[in-house]
Amino acid sequence: MPWNSPNEGNGGKGPVQGPWGQTPRPPGGGGGGSGNGNEPPNFDDVLQRLAASLRGFAPHGGISGPGIALLVLVGILLWALTGFYTVGANEVGLNLHFGRYVGKTEPGLNYNWPYPAGSVIKLPVTDRNSIDIGQRAGHGVAAVDVPSESLMLTGDENIADVKFRVIWQIDPAHPEDYAFNLANREGTVKAVAESSMREIVGKSEIQKLLTVDRTRVEQQAQDLTQATLNQYKAGILILQVQLLSVDPPQQVIAAFKDVTAAQQDMQRLQNEADAYRNKVVPEARGAAAAIVQAAKAYREQTVAEATGEASRFSQIDTQYKLAPALTRQRLYLETMEKVLGGAKKVIIDPSIGKGAVPYLPLNQIFNSGAAK
User: Fold this and answer.
1) CB 238 within 8 A of CB 218
2) 129-248: CATH homologous superfamily?
């Protein structure tokens, strides 16, 4: 029965209530949503207006062929308009036609076939995701260790407790691989990352893992995880692998701390020895160079003196050949000058006290400074 016909339940008195419990408006009462904004529109008025607009196509009260065509055309147009959709700034849209992937769309307003012929999958390709392996971080509580994931065997047959984090995102170049090739995306990333880390730790020594190899392990784990996911065509980019902690098992951590302390002491002593060597070796090299230079200078001096003496002797020999007596006299005087020039001596005038032996108090003379 029509919504504004008398209700049989109330004895045919008064109009019935509409499907939402409202009382139909009287004609001309502003149907279609006027009046109280919280009330739904009066569909009787809407249908009456639509029927009135179609009477032009049905002069005798029925809907003619053109009216049906218009209704079909309007319906198709409204259905086609439902194919417009928007893609967020951090998203990529994947267009599907009857469930088959046909292409991707960039952020903004886009169009695809309307439902059910077409559908769209929107993926947040710029959002970063992280997975912790070896521990579980709760909300507002401390992280809980997961030994089944963190305990790994090293290459030197020790056990290391390795906790790390994998940061990843959807590959913007291949989001369709992420959407269609993987069923459990996070589980796949976690399994591949854990397997890669176990392989790398299995080729490393525990002491290097605890000290100097952290950066190398992180990079190798990232590369190996990315290569494996590329083989799966997972459509995932591994942005970073962070080692949260690398420790020996709790049962032997005290012994490992002692070993680490001993290694640090060894390194400190090596540094001190290197510093002492760097100080002493240059000093010894400088002293050796000084001795060598002094020896070279002495050699040059001795050679020069010998050369000068030889030249002087040659000149004296030439002069001796020209005047032997004079040369002998000069050599005698020069020799006596060298011998007696620096000695204390007493000179006696031979003209005084001829024929008598003079008595000279030499000790007194020398002590008084009179002697020259």
Assistant:
1) no
2) Band 7 domain (3.30.479.30)
